[in-house]
Design brief:
homodimer; 305 residues; mainly alpha; two-stranded antiparallel ribbon; 2 strands; 71% helix; 1% strand
Chain lengths: 305, 305
């Protein structure tokens, strides 16, 4: 039997996902914004294909719920959440390219370069990354100029060479030369950790949190980011293609090292338990208000797909 | 015999290029910035290869000289100029990919995907685009928060689906179906015009120009952006591979329509003359201070490579 908190969380996650999809749908309208000349149809369709694909919208959820801890403006949080999702989706589109992970399917649907072509997939990713900064800076995002700039700076550092893109570069190199444990930790902190950490930190920025609270949320994000990756690795060594909807065992087949593969499932499960406990304790100062984020920590560690 | 103004301009262009190269070299250092985890060596090398390649740095020049009209802070203008050059170089790296224009050489050197590999070229482009927003938002760029946000917004709209990336998408589509004259104009305004327009507008923003002056500089940028493209098209139908250092006649071979191809060289030269005159007249209110930008207008129309 599922606990009431879990049900509450799943309902909230689905609800936020709907709001985020509506926001993304609106942002990806055919109508050019001020300063834009036109929005070419094929490119817009490719962007929409890569974004409006029924994802769980975990990162946007983390932005929205982190912001809610600080009574942030709901619309501003939603727009920043959508901006982050654009960055996440751009990374999936580019990672799926033949020159990178070469995946034909994503959530059971053809990847963007399969549904369109490689050039459109490259440009759709580029345009989504660009759009993310547009969304944050736009007047429709009602936040102080200083908060917006903090978001632009933190997002660019989480997503660029020192974060997600750098992590993908290390991940590709790891196929040729297996990294040691420290190398795996750095790789994962960059490739998946940085953006999840940013999600939680962004909520604090949107909410105008004090520096100590902002740091607390960032640490919460780091803990669940690591848990997310460990759960993914565990899934990879124990799941099968049917439940996951994409090729599994692929990381191993490509010779990629993961902490779960290095230490085994029992160690990984203990680590996951520790990370969830750490993440949840970081939220203690927020009392009852932290309920959904506490459940999010459990969710990322327990996920089945 | 060359006129003294032309010599002055060429000296200034070369001088600004050196400053911009130094700034880019510093920004692309191996040392991670605050909030970055690490800067992976291969990715950084690929970024540096794509950026520190001896370009003319025309767009940065336009930022710096437009800013100088308004007595802007020189360091701030230089950083914004470097940010714009990161966007320009990202677009060249991605445009050169096999799935796009498939070029092996750029300024006589192997393109990034040739010197490294396709995945590194994709990620280097992604990371340079991301870095551009980082540079603008960073505390080291000493500008008001409002000015920085205006730069982020204007740059994202000039570079994204409604500008440069959208223009590249239209350009690829033009290989399959030849656009009409209006289509060519839109395509070129997006693909090359938007970023050159932004360069001049950005200088006005950095300099805290009044809205009317900002608009004037943006119009100047539009005029020389169009001249730049017409000169490029003219070069393409009349030049040869030896002087240009890259494959020419390629646009025609791929069946791409240009205004120069449509109307012929004489029409194109008349248009160029008109655009240069228009651009120069837009600078009249700035008197002697507009000298270098007026020469820049002549330079883009006259360029031989």
């Amino acid at each position: 039997m599922e606990m009431p908190e879990t049900l509450l969380f799943e309902e909230a996650l689905a609800g936020r996902a709907k709001s985020v999809e509506r926001q993304l749908d609106e942002l990806l309208s055919p109508r050019p914004e001020a300063g834009e000349i036109a929005r070419p149809e094929t490119l817009l369709s490719a962007m929409r294909h890569g974004v409006l694909n029924g994802g769980k919208r975990l990162r946007p959820f983390l932005v929205i719920e982190s912001a809610a801890l600080f009574d942030a403006d709901v619309d501003a949080a939603l727009r920043v959440a959508a901006a982050l999702e654009c960055v996440h989706c751009y990374s999936l589109i580019h990672d799926d390219l033949p020159a990178m992970d070469d995946d034909d399917l994503r959530r059971g649907q053809p990847t963007v370069h399969k549904a369109f072509d490689e050039a459109s997939a490259i440009l759709a990713g580029d345009s989504l990354l660009t759009l993310a900064f547009d969304i944050i800076a736009a007047p429709a995002t009602v936040l102080s100029a200083d908060s917006k700039l903090e978001l632009v700076l933190a997002l660019s550092r989480a997503a660029g060479i020192g974060g997600m893109a750098g992590g993908q570069s290390l991940d590709l190199a790891a196929e040729r030369q297996t990294p040691d444990e420290a190398g795996i930790i750095t790789l994962q902190a960059m490739k998946t950790g940085a953006l999840i950490r940013f999600a939680c930190e962004a909520g604090a920025i949107v909410g105008g949190a004090k520096p100590a609270d902002r740091e607390r949320l960032a640490e919460f994000g780091s803990a669940i980011g690591l848990a997310f990756q460990l759960a993914d690795d565990l899934l990879d060594i124990s799941s099968n293609a049917a439940t996951l909807g994409k090729a599994t065992g692929k990381d191993r087949a490509a010779g990629k090292a993961t902490l779960a593969a290095l230490h085994g499932p029992d160690w990984t499960k203990r680590q996951l338990g520790g990370l969830v406990a750490q993440a949840r304790s970081l939220l203690e100062p927020f009392g009852e208000r932290g309920l959904l984020l506490r459940e999010a920590a459990r969710f990322v560690a327990d996920r089945r797909n």
